[in-house]
Predict the structure.
Amino acid sequence: MNAPGSSRLEALFRALVARRRAIIALYAVLIPLAAAAAARIPSDSSIDRLVVQSDADFRAREEFRRLFPERAQVILLAQAPDPFAPEVLRRAAEIEAALRQVPRVSPFSAPTVFEQARPGGAAADRPEEFRAFATGTDLLRRQGLVGPGFLGIPVTLDVESPADRDRVLGKIDRALAPFLSPPLTGLGKVGGPYVDAWLEGETARAGRTAFPLLGAFVVVITLSLYRSVRTLLAFLLTLAAAVACALGLGHLAGYAFTIVSSLVPLTILITTTAALVYLQSRFIEIPEGRSIEDHQAFALANKFLATTASMFAAAIGFAALAVSKIRPIREMGLWVGAGILVTWVVVFTLFPALQSLLRTPVRRAAAGADGGWQRLFDRLPLWTWRFRWPLLAGSFLLMVAGTVALLGLPGRIAPLPLQTDALDYVDPRLPIVRDTRLFERAISGLSQVEVWVTTPEGRALDPEILRGLDAFSRRLEADDRIGTVTGPITTLRFLRYAAGGGDRLPAEPSAWPGLAASLDQLLLNEPALRDQIDINSLSHLRLTVLYQVKGFAGVEATRAFFGAVWEAAAAEVPALREGRMRIVGQGLLQAKIAEYLVPTLTESFLLTAAIIFLAFLVVFRSGAARLMAMIPSVFAILAMFPVMRACGIPLNVATILIASTVLGASENDQIHFFYHLQEGRRGAGLEAAMHHALRIAGRAILFATLINAGGFLALSFSGLPPMRQFGILASSAFVLSMLASLTALPAALWVVSGERPTGAMPAPRRPVGAPPRGSGAEAAPGGAPSPG
């Protein structure tokens, strides 16, 4: 039965609660379906997935892959003090023979190349001859087949999916197990498949670690706040429904779990828990003389606008990450945004139904029932007035320092460093990082870019074009930033070197018709060569270049370098002008990621801030309030950048989310604080309004922040360095935002209003639904006065 003066919103919630059994039955059907859909979401944490599919360079690479399908490759490093010793060569031959028994694996090595080029026995039986062969040219070193202290064994994998890759890598590891002993000092593993497998496994482990920790944290917070197992059960069932529905939505959208995907369910859990804390904290304390049914409808209606505004602002704020050209960040933002909207429905339907069905306990408000936290909140208004100027000055200085730490000062302080190297996302203590850095130093670079050469129809094997490619390759390798160039010209150089003619191809045009003919013959007999020349049209060639991506100042500088080298080669061999050269590949995309990081941070932050400002515009009418409400979040975000610089934490695909995440999630505190500040401002001074807001929302702000901070702090146990860094930064930022909400924000309100406190402590506690004393208004039996 509706109480006199009940609003339409309260009537709506009464109607929803009356249908609680139907609502719970609906979710009982929906949740298993959503969970089943979530379980089918694929996992793809590869660095290869970072760029959005609409990017021009991404499309170019996909077009290139249709001509030259890429096969995964790893390189095994047989390490020894003298890699040319007979026993080491014999062990390398045994490893290669064992690998040949593994299905879908194709290994080769420098000893095999030597034995094919110089028949006469195994390399282990001719160690000095092999040493002279391997060190008489830089071809083997540039290909990673020999190096200081190792023999390289490249292994090509014929795999089509991450599951295939993991199975084949497992078989390789088992095949290698008998050889992990002297004369080898180690057997290193290098290559993207190993990195991708580790990233995907660690992403899954991060979720398995973070979610139980967050669950335990929610249990502790809920029981300490409400001391009720029934309330805890209502929380947990609502959280399970919210996460299942949000993840099921991701399956429908075609998303995959990526390197930052663990933030999706984690953010949904944190956002939902914070909303439940605000609703339950308003519901649990019921004024004397009011029925539980009426008070539940009042509490839901009273918190509806503030909770809706904060959740919608957070949802649209996360969705603002769609401006990013980094694919996992874009998908994560849209996924979280849509998930929060689904969560909003769950919070205002399932949770009230569970409150009623489980009969979650309440307590009657009584005068003098204030606890220790409330006594602290009662002292805050006077304390913030006394220290208003130091609080504001300190906050301003920290914000300036944060801006400088992020953007730097021209000529004095460099901007915050960017991180896009795939190995930077791997635990630096792992052997794969050590082995990869060793290999990278040996060949002078590990980032890969593909040179795509298009010639007139049928002229890929034209002698003059091949001569021009030789000139182009030589000019590339003359630069210290280029490690190796592999292509058809490399095959010709190997053939010439094996024949005893040196590894340099002749510059005279008359020698090239014969070289072109030999390459044409090899194309018929060597399938591997078809990965470099398109045999269907004979108008496309591929050169694979390993280079030092950090040696170039971005994508355009890389393009300019390759373009200038091409023009210089074309000046030497004019036939090249008839063709077209493009650079594509993963290395180019990684360089683009570095250029997208800062725009992602700034554009998404500005868009998020603008959207949240509009949300505040809906809730609040005061222009000053709209701006001041964002002070705590902006302060917390900027304060993190000096911490990042001091701790050596760079910007990467995870830490770049700090601004949008903190701004999108922490504005809950400001919205709820200002909502109740306005509620208490009617006919009362600022001090009384602050007391009213802190009495109703103070503890909820405190514990919601602890949930936010504790939830993200669970990521600090992740083995992924970026996620670990993000967890620590985000949890710290939430605490700073809460402190600013309770100190700097009231201080700013005192300065803007020009009011002075009376210094009197608030009167004994009034019923929660009643307006502050002296407001000239009395609470209706079914609710409080409508806020501003």
